[in-house]
Write a structure and sequence with these properties.
Elements: H1 2-22, H2 27-51, H3 55-68, H4 73-85, H5 89-99, H6 107-119, H7 123-136, H8 141-153, H9 157-168, H10 175-187, H11 191-202, H12 210-223, H13 227-240, H14 245-258, H15 262-275, H16 281-290, H17 295-309, H18 316-338
Length: 343
Amino acid sequence: MRPIAHLAIFILLGVGCSTTETKQIDPDQERKQQASEKLNSSLSLGSKYAVDGLYREAITELRKALKTDGASVEAHRLLGIVYVKVGRYERAIKHFETVIDNLANNFEANYYLAEAYRTQERFGDAIFRYKIALTAQPKNVLATKALAWSYYKIRYYRAALSTIKKLKNQENQDVQVTIIYARVLNKMGASRRALKIARAHLNTLSAEQKPYLLSVVGDIFLSQKNFKKAEEAYREALKDQPLLAGALLGLAKVLLEKGDRADIAISYLERAARIKPGMIESFYYLGKAHYKSRPNLAKKFYTKFLRQAAGDPEYSSLVENARKKVSTFATSGQKRTSKKPSL
C-alpha cells in the first residue's frame, strides 16, 4: 500500500507543479499596469509639487506623465495650471486646449484657461471660459472680478457693471471690486458717483493698497478736467508706489495738459513704458511731449502708437490727432525738399 500511496502523492504534486508552470502573465497587461503605476506616480508627485509651489519640479514630473501617456487629461490640466502660475501663458493655452472638451465642468481648467487668454488680450475667449467656470462655482469672487474686468477691457460697460455689482455687497472691502466699479462708472459718464465710491473706500485701505485706488481717483479727476486734484492724487499714489505705471502716465498727462515741463513729463512716460511696455497711450503722449523740441522722435512715437492703437475705439480721438500730427511732418518734409537753393 505504501508504494501506491507514494505514487498518488507524487502524481498530485506533479499535477500541481504542472499547473503552476503553465500559468503565465499577459505581457501586454503587465506593461499597461506598469505604465499606469508610472503615470499615477508622476501625476501624484506633480500635483504635490504644484500645491507646495515647487513649479519647476511639478513641470518635470508632469512632463514625465505625458511621456508615459500623451493623452492624459489630468497631466495636461495640471501643466496648464502650473504654466499659468509661472507666466508661460502660451504653453498653458496649448495644454488646456488639447483637453478642454473633456473638462467642460471643471472650474480650474476653465478659470485658468480664461486667465491665460486674458493675458494675451483674447478677451472674447476669456469671457466665454470665465462664464463656464462660474457655472461650476457661481459665487467665485476671483472669476467674477476677472469677468467684469474683461468686459471693461472690451468696453462692454453695462455688462461689466452688472457683473461687478454682484460683488459690491458681498465683497464690500475688496479694493479691486471698488477699482473696477469706479472705473466702469467713470467710463459710463457717472464720474461724480465713481469719485464718491472711490473716496469712501480710501480711508479703509492699507498703505500698500491705497496707491492703486488713488491712481483711479486721479483718472476720475483728469476726466473732469480738474488737473490740480488729479495731480495731487497721482503724486500721493506715487509716494508709496513709485513704480505705479498708471499714476506715472496720469501725472505726465496732467503736466502736458497744463503746458508744464515737458521734460519731466517725458521722464514719467519713459518710466511708465518701461514698467508696462503694453501701455499704448504712453507712445501717444511721448509723441506729444517731443513734438516741439524733437519732431523726428515725436513722429517715431506717434507712428508706434498708430500701429498699435488703430482700430481700437477707445483711442479713436487720439488716433485722429496722431494722424494729423504725422501728416504735418510729411508736409513740412516736402516743403523742405522742394525749397530751391538760393543763387
